[in-house]
Structures are given as structure tokens and as C-alpha cells.
Design a protein that fits this description.
The complex is a heterotrimer of chains A (about 575), B (about 300) and C (about 240). With about 575 residues, chain A is α/β, with parallel strands linked by helices. Chain A has helices at about 45-50, 55, 80-85, 100-110, 115-130, 145-160, 175-195, 205, 230-240, 245-250, 260-270, 345-350, 375, 395-405, 415-425, 440-450, 470-485, 500-505, 520-525, 535-540, 550-565, and strands spanning about 5-10, 20-30, 35, 60-70, 70-75, 85-90, 165-170, 195-200, 215-220, 220-225, 305-310, 320-325, 330-335, 360-365, 380-385, 460-465, 490-495, 505-510, 515-520. Helix content of chain A is about 35%, strand content about 20%. The longest helix of chain A is centred in the N-terminal third of the chain and has 18 residues, at about 175-195. In chain B, strand 2 and strand 3 (about 100) form a beta hairpin. Classes of the chains: A alpha/beta (about 575), B mainly alpha (about 300), C mainly alpha (about 240). At the B-C interface, helix 2, helix 4, helix 5, helix 7 and helix 8 of B face helix 2, helix 3, helix 5 and helix 8 of C.
Chain lengths: ~575, ~300, ~240
Amino acid sequence: MALVEIEDVTYRYPRGGGPALSGVGLVLREGEFVLVTGPTGSGKTTLLRLLNGLIPHFHGGRMSGRVLVEGRDTRRTEPRELAKRVGMVFQNPEDQLVTTTVEREIAFGLQNAGLPAPVIAKRVEEMLAGLGLSRLRSRFIPELSGGEAQKTALAAALALHPALLVLDEPTSQLDPLAAEELLTMVRRIHEETGTTVVMTEHRLERCYHHATRVLHMREGRIAFDGTPREAARWCSLNDGDFAPPVARVFVRAGWEEVPLTVNGARSVLRGKGCLNGRRRAEPEAPGDTECVSRARGGEVAELARMRGVHYRYPEGGTALRGVDFSLGPCSRLALLGENGAGKSTLLRCLLGLLRPDRGKVTLMGKTPSPRLLPELAPSLAYCPQNPASFFVASSVRDELRRTMRLRGGEGSGAEEEMERMMERLGLQGLGERDPRDLSSGEREKVILAASLLPPPPRLLVLDEPTRGLDHRCKREVVEALRECGEEGTTILLVTHDVEFAASMAGRAAIMGCGAIITEGPSGEVLGDSLFYSPQVNRLLGDLRPGIMREEEAVSFLKEVREVCGR
Amino acid sequence: MLPVYRERDTLVHALHPLAALLLVGTLAASSLLASDPVWAAAACLLTLAFIGVGGNWDGCRPFLRLGMWMAAIMAVINPLVNHQGEHVLVYGPRLPWWGAMDITLEALLYGAYAGVRVFSVIAACSLLATAVSPDELLDLLSRLALRSSLAAALAVRLYPGMVAEAHRMREAQLARGERLAEGGPLRRLQAHLPLWHSLFRGSLDRAASIAEAMTARGFGSGGRTPWKRRTAQPRDLMAVSLCLVVLGSLAAAQAVGSGYSFFPRPDDPLRSWSPLMPFLPALALLSLSFLAWSWRRWHWLRSRM
Amino acid sequence: MRALRYSLMAGAALAFFLGLRGAPFFSEWSLNSLLLAVLLLAVLFLRFEEREPGSRELAAVGLLAALAAGGRVLFAAVPGLQPATFLTIAAGYALGAEPGFMVGALTALLSNIFLGHGPWTPWQMLGWGLAGAAGGLMGKAFRGRVRVPAVAGLGTAWGFLFGWGMNLWFWLSFVRPLTLRSFTAACAASLPFDLLHAAGNLFFALLLAGPVIDMLIRFRERFSCEFEEASAEAVLDGRGTG
């Protein structure tokens, strides 16, 4: 018997918008690992909500067709009953944990199910041990890191021994390491327990090859349904942003093979005899692509500089231990490093939101402080890590107007400039929407639009701008940033996303233990690394040192194909 | 800001929350239940002794400082509003309706006595705040009022995130060039208004997500198994029985005793003393302190509790 | 549960009566008043339970309490500015008397974790909880339409009522003799603080009551949506609802 049968479901949310799903039919069998891909608003989340009865029981709305979970119609089954069979993990760890400690959180669903107390105790122990959470047993939930919180949510969902595990972009708010750990755990659960898994995820390179089946959605319909390899080829040809990067590169270069991972791709190349089996030594340093010549008015002074900066949080924990760096005009610097390396603290010190214990910070020739910031507003723009904290107005236009006012860019022509900027970033038609109702990609673009409004800032500081964005949004963000870099804006970028850093920045620095460990041209810093190098570099770096971007890889692979094909 | 609950190895931490609640109640009641000032002072000292030898002193200290202030306020207010008593120290002016603003020795004494009482109540409550886990208190509540306790747990869990979010928002707006740190208080308040508005709006969105997650995890109508981890231990039994001795003997003493009066002239505090009062409750309170001491220092007894 | 609530109410009445009659233990008003406050709180908590609030209401109550407690802790150093009172009243106005009570009671409970629990906690829980309940009754009287002046009036009044309630605790516990005169003196002593509190409430209500209550009502309505089965064509057309 099929685990879930979705029979021709068409659905519309109660308030606003078009139909979220139209004519979706789907059968999920036991033991599958299904990956659901598709752009924002294509109905991925809606599809997942059908599986455990959140639609219709929680969201209401109008629906035709029916959904059967283990033969029971979800419309006539209590959410309480469905919760026992379908476990769900949501996107944001902050918004799904409801109790105060890890063990109570795991027990929450079990208590709701009305299981006897000894069974609850047993299951809690089992989950704590099985997912490596034992040492966090009585930790206060708000003190957990994002990764730990998501693991707790996973444990809580799993504790009910569900037949189906549903995950809605579970790693979008996590750093790469925590994301990898969570996905590994999901794969392990799938393999060891045979639990059926359905998940959406935008880091395709991490999970595509684990899936047994991929569904691609578009405008509320299932556009493609097949094995990962078929899906990778189909998506590369039809909806390039939603294919795993390695497969996309190969398909775009015209290859027949569709490898899903770096290793798979390398064995394809090896099979063709393109790899001679030995990594070439040191890559030659590519030129620094700074546009010093374009500095406005012949300024040569540094925009920002830190000398021997130390900072220690009052509640304990040293965050910065002697940071030295400087940022010249027109440079683009990416700051990488693991969580807790001090990246965000560095930004705070740079902006004067924190006062360093020791050392000197200069920002545009002055010592920064909260009082200086309004003065600097016309030449400085900051995009915070959490887009939600940026928005205070109730519509996108108001938000942009507000920024305009703060940056002293009011006056005639301001409105036109605003419309032009919105068009440039593809935000037409969103002007009257509440920014908090937008998707994370759209929100990031609104912040960028606000930051780049004329007069263009001299310094743009971005804190993890690509968190939670799918490849399409990322590409749009990169384009906008490149344009503004060409206009002469200096960019300081904090990110976990190596691909993004490689495509954006001329220089890169890696932070660790509160200090900058290495700094240099991005090709050099990122190319010479096992984990901090972009995927295409790991794939082709020994054939073509310094290869960093997808376009380069595609054209290179075309060459290789011609050479090897001959 | 006062310190909050922190994990430590003391008897109060180790008690079942119900027993801990009774213990705190007993300590607080011990100074309230008897009207004679010498006993009130003794009860206060015994409470302090319990905190001291039990190893709770560090956590409770800021509360005790607060208690001193409250006691001082009591000592000042009482003589100002109370003009009974024979020994007038200062003759004050006569106000219409109010009467003479005299300050009497008796009222001063009563003020000091009230101060001691408020101090020892605060001292007892400081144990509740610093040594009894709020989670376990909520668990206790969840047996009776499941949904209320869940709402309370949610509030506790969401509070830090809320504060962090407010902080992040402020930083983001400052970096945007918003003048939040300038001007008079009213101007600043006004500059913050959009921020609060936004924080509020964001919170409601978060409430919606949390409600969805709760539904997805089977929260709804119908029964629910209570969370139960703590079982009663010998130490709970010991503490509870000692507390009952204290409360019982104090209540009995109050029932038979004539009651102490400060006015018009202070009674002799020793007049009403008997073995029941104050020696029995004092002994029981001392035994409680002894238990708390052995929890930290006497392995043999501890291993048997 | 209802039986328990009624017996608790009867118990409270009995304790009050015994106290008036001067029975031992019950005539010790410092204890008896605490007992009465706790019993009253228990009754109101049970009343909240009886309605079996769903996940949305609980989530909203928890969040609003966290928000109000945050506001209280943030402004603890500024006498009078007390966003907690205003938020509680607004929550009651929009969501109803019982949730309003809960928001207020939890605000006191939560913020005192940081500001210090003491014998005043039950009284503060009552003070704010009843503010929420009063807001709820007012909201019911106006059938959910937002009347800023009414909210402002209630906020101002509650500035004083809250202060007097706290004075009542203080007076019953630590002031003798228990006469109207000494109570008046206690109220006179706290008048400056109460005035500031009332003024702060008025300020918040005039500035924020409109948008905040509006948002809360929209939040409540967003979730009262019904599920409807329809044919595929009807869903695609978006006829009827939309």
C-alpha cells in the first residue's frame, strides 16, 4: 500500500494570492527519499503541509481532491492522529521549539499523543542517545546554537516513530557545517530505519545524490518527477538554477554524463582520461582584480582600517584577539570563517556598535560610534544578517523612502530613482507589499535596493546576504553587487558561502579564533584550500588552477570535451 | 538586575519542587506567624543561617540587599502613619482629619519589627528565585493547569529571543543612520516607536509559526500525559516533615497564645514563651539548616538522603 | 475543573470571613492576604483552562507575555514607563478577557525572574492579570472596534488601581494598625509613582493603542479561517472567498 496518495489536489489559501497548488497528484511509497525542488512560491511548502494535515486543519482555505495518509483521508483525521504518523521539521529553529529544555521538547509530541509516562521516558532517552544530544539534555532551548536546535526539532519529530518525516528547508538558517551534520543525520535515519523522507532544500549539492526521487515544482504543479539523475538533466536544461551545480556545469558544457557530486564528476573525467591523476602543485597567483583606478576623486585613503583590535564580550568569551586589516577604496573583500570566529563582532566594531577594548578602528577617517553613524549614512550601507531586523516600515516603498531620507537622498527625482532601483533588482509589483511577508530572497533584494539607492554608498557592508537563498536569488544578488562594485562601491562581505565569495570578491580573508589568519587575492586564498574552495575549483582546480566561477568551468569543460572527445 | 536561577549543588536545588516550595513558604511564614518581636528576629536569623550554611548565600545576596532597603522603608513609614503608643518621642503638628503627627517609641519599635519581617520574607523568597528551577515549578503547575503552564513555558522560552531580536533591530537601525541615541528622552522614545511596532509585528508572525509547529506536533484538544521526572526522595520527606513541625507548632502557639501587642505599651516578649513556642519551631528550623549543611559537607548523610 | 474552581472560590470566601472574625492564623493578614491572592489567581487560571485555548491562542499569549516582560525589564529603571500595562490591556481588548488575564499574569511571573521574585509576585500577577481582563471586558463591550480614548482611559485608571493594589498588599502585610487612615497614607506615599505610571499608560495608549490592537485583531481573524471543499474549477476561479 502506498504511504501517501495525493489525488488531484487543487488548493488556495484563504487570504490573497492565486491557487497554491493546481492539480497535484502524487503517490509516495515506503522507504523513499524524496527531494522537492522549485523556485520560491512554486508550492513546495504547501505540498509538504498537505502531508500532515496542516492543510486543511490549520490553514483552512479551499481545496479539491483528497490526500490519503496510510489510507486515511486527512480531511477527516485529527491533526493529533496524523502527527503520530507524519513528523515535521520546519525551516526556522526559533519558530518551532515550544518548551524550555531539550528533553522536554522531545517529550512534547509524545505527551500530546498521550503515551504512557514510561514510554515517553524511554523514547526521550532513545532520541537523546541516538542523535547525540545527551549532553544537551537539560540545556535551555534559547541557548542552543542553530544546528543544535534543528537537531532537537528533528529528534522531537522522530520520537513519535513516524512513518514519514517531512522537512521544510531544515538547513536554510544554518551554517554549512551544521547543515551538513543535520543532512547526514537525516540520511542516516533514512538508511537505518527505513523512514520515508520528504524534504525541500536549496543546497542541492548537499542532498541531491542522497535522494531516491526528485520532484521539481513550478507554479503549483509538479513539473518533473523522476530519479535524481534524470531530474538533474531535466532541470539543467529547463530550470538551470535548480539543478545541482556539478551536473549543471556538465550539461551546460554539452556533456552526456550527468554527475551529481565532485567525486562522481572526477571519475567521469578520469574515465575519459582527462585527469592525469596527480594534483598540480601551487596555483599561480591570479592578478588582483581591484579597480583602484576608478576611485572617485583620486582618493587613496583607506575607507576602513583596524589595528590590533581586541574585544571581549562582557558576559565572557573573547571575540577578537588582535585584528589587523584595512580596506582600500573600490576593493571587494570577503571574510570567511567558521561560526564564532569573530566575523560579526568584527563588523560591529567596525561600525562602532561595539567599542573595542584595545586597538584602533577608523571608518572613513573617523573613530566610529553610534553617534557618528547618522553622519556616515550617506556613504555607508549595512545589510544585517537577519533581514527581519532591517524592516520597520509597512511597505517596500516606505522602507526605501525611509532609507532615502536617512541618507539625505531626498529631493526631486528621488521617486524615479527608487522605481529604477526596484526595477533593476526585479522588485516591480512588490512596492506596496509588507516587506516581512516577502520570501527571504525578495527581502534580501529589498535590503540591497535600499542600500544601493543613490547616492551610491562608498562602503557596503553585508553580513551573510545569501543565507536561506536558492541559487536563482543568489545569482540575482551577485549581479546587483557586481554592478555596484563597478560603480566604485567598496564591498565588505561576511559569508559562509564559498561559491558566493568566489564569484563576488577580489580579495578574501579567513578568520579563526578572533583573528585574521590569512588574507589575499580570493583566487589564492580560496583556491588553495580543501574546504574553503568552491566546488568548481575542487573539481577542476588541478587542471586549471585558479578556476573559481561556474562560467569559467563551463567553457573549460567545453574545451576538455573537444580535446578528450577527439 | 538580580541574578536568576543557576544550577548549583545545594539541598534546595536537590529538593522536589513541591518540597522546595513548602520549605520557602515555611521560612517565610515562620517570621510572619508569630507576633512577638524576639521570635521574629530569631526566625529571621534562622532563615539567614539556612541560606548561609546551605551554600545559597552567593545567589541570594543581591536579594538580601533589596530586602534591607525594603526593611528600612518599613521602619520609616510605620512611625509616620501610626501614632498610637504611650511614649511620644517627637510631638508633631496637628493636621486636619489626620490628627497629631506624633512619633512614638512604640511605633518605631513596630516599624523595626515590620522591617525584620519583610526582610526575612524576601530572604526566603530569594531561595525560590535562585535555587528552585523555574522549569520544575512550571512542571508542577502543568499537573493542574496544563495550558497555562505551556503558555508560561513558551513565554520563558521566547523571552531571550525577543530581547536579542530587539537588540539586533536597534543595531540595524543605528547602522542605517537612524538617530536613536540622540536628543531628550521623549525624542528618543519617539525614534524607537517604529522599532517597537516592527518588533510587535514580527512577534505576531512568530506566534503564527509556533502555533503551526504545535499543531504539527499533535497539540490540540484532548488529554495529555504530564511530564514527570522527579520522584520523592528521603530528603524531600525529611524537609517536608520538619516544615510541618514548624508550621504546626507556630499555628498551635498562635491558637493558644494571647498574641503580642505593641500598643499602647510593648508587652514583655518573654511572657508568653513556652516549650511549644519558640523552642520547638526553632529546633526544627535548626534541623533544616543541619540538613542543608550535610548535603554539602557530610557525605554519609547525603548518600542516605 | 469547574467544581475545583467553585470550591477554590468558596475557600477564598471562607478564608476572608475567618480573617474578619479574627480566627487564629487567618487573622494574620500578611499570610491571609497572600493566601487570598493565590486562591484568586488559581481561580482565574482555571477559568483560562476551562476554555481549552488552542495552539494559536497559547502561542500569542506566550509571545505577548514575553514582549511585555521584555518591555518591563527594559524600562525597569524609568519610573512610570510601564509598557507591560498597556500591552496587557491591548492584548485583552483584542483577544478577550481570559487571554488578557493570562498575558498580564505571565508578564509578572516572567519579568520577576529577572527583577526578583518575592511575596509581591502574586499581587503583581493579579494587578496585571486583571488589567488584561478589564481590557477584555472593554473590548467585548465595544464588540472589537478599536476605541483609543476608552483604552487610554482604562490605562490611566489602571495606573492608579495597580498602585493601590500593590499598596493593599504592603499595607495588609507590614503596616499596623489596619485603618483607612494608614491606607490613605500609604497611597499618598505612592501617589507620585502612580501618577507617572498612569501618565505613561496614557502616553503609550494614545500613541500605540490603535495600531497594536488593530494588528492583534487581524492576527486573531487570520486564524478564524474556515476550510471549504470545492471543485477544482471553483478553487482555480477563486469564486466565493478569495
